[in-house]
Amino acid sequence: MKLYSVNTGYFKLDGGAMFGVVPKTIWNKLNPADSNNLCSWAMRCLLIEDGDRLILVDNGIGNKQDEKFFGHYYLHGDDSLDSSLQKLGFHRNDITDVFLTHLHFDHCGGSIERDGDKLVPAFKNATFWSNLRHWEWATEPNDREKASFLKENILPIEQSGQLKFIEPTNGVAFIDNISVRFANGHTDAMMLPQISYKGHTIVFMADLLPSIGHIPIPYVMAYDMFPLTTLHEKKQFLQEATDKQYLLFFEHDPVHECCTLQMTEKGIRHKDIFTLESL
Fold first, then answer.
1. Are 181 and 192 contacting, i.e. CB atoms less than 8 angstroms apart?
2. Which of helix, strand or coil describes residue 175?
3. How far apart are the C-alpha atoms of 140 and 125, rounded to whole Å?
4. For residue 20, how many other CB atoms are within 10 A of its CB?
């Protein structure tokens, strides 16, 4: 097995929304905002090469939305999914599996592309993996979250016949050396791959911990549907990850790719910061 970090570009979100009840005087030191109170965030995906399977975890925001949509999120940077795959010697048609942690647009938007007036899978040879509980949550969204669940990103996956579901049971095996953790605070039944790799356990954090700056327990996004659930999930996970020396892979941290954890007088904080390539 070999793991690769795949950067699909950067976008901007409101800093207050990303840090919830934490005052700007504190979070602005972690990720400084621009004059519009917007901070840059990565859309970093994970590519897993395992035998004849090439598994992509999430795929960024995509490029099929209109100018008005992208005007809200200020996409920037030189990276794209295709250019990052090309640097690694791969093409999107090589992808055999697309593992979607959840169906918010910045995680699954690259799943579908436009072919004339049709919406078709961007990964023609891949199986797309979600779970039925989250799929139903996303396709019948609540009023607060429906702006993040775009039908054009989601429904064509099912219509293609390339969709399969993972059993929504914590710890269920995906393939050898990859199990799935479920978290329900950010959105219902979000999936976090947990990977055994080179003697380490690596957890893809998705939106349970968007960045190193979100490690302190009260730092919970205003985007989370159930913030108290997130608090409980974070607290439990961080203790387990510290005790068992997990490596954390961050999807949205604009600077830091991975870290380990340690207990400090202020609580659990990051310890070593590194990249997958350095392992």
1. yes
2. strand
3. 28
4. 17
Q: 254, 249, 251: which is closest to 274 by C-alpha?
A: 249
> Which residues make beta-bridge pairs with 262?
269
Going by their DSSP bridges, the two strands 53-57 and 178-183 should be labelled as unpaired
Give the 3-state secondary structure of residue 260: strand
| Cβ–Cβ < 8 Å for 179, 194 | yes
Count of residues in the chain: 279
Longest dimension (CA), the chain: 58
DSSP H or E stretch at residue 202: strand 200-204
How large is the angle between the packed helices 132-139 and 151-160, nearest 10 degrees? 130
Q: What is the pTM of this model?
A: 0.97
CA angle 222, 226, 227 (to 5 degrees): 55
Q: What are phi and psi of 125, to 5 degrees?
A: -110, 15
The pLDDT tens digits for 144-189 are 999 999 999 999 999 999 999 999 999 999 999 999 999 999 999 9
Model confidence band, residue 84 (pLDDT cutoffs 50, 70, 90): very high
Q: How far apart are CA 36 and CA 106, in angstroms?
A: 20
Confidence of residue 222 (pLDDT cuts 50, 70, 90): very high
In this structure, which amino acid lies at residue 169?
A: T
Question: Residue 184 is which amino acid?
Answer: N
CA distance linking residue 275 with residue 5, whole number of Å: 8
pLDDT of residue 24: 98
Q: Checking DSSP bridges between strand 200-204 and strand 247-249, what pairing results, if any?
A: parallel
Cα–Cα distance measured from residue 182 to residue 185, given in angstroms and rounded to the nearest whole number: 10
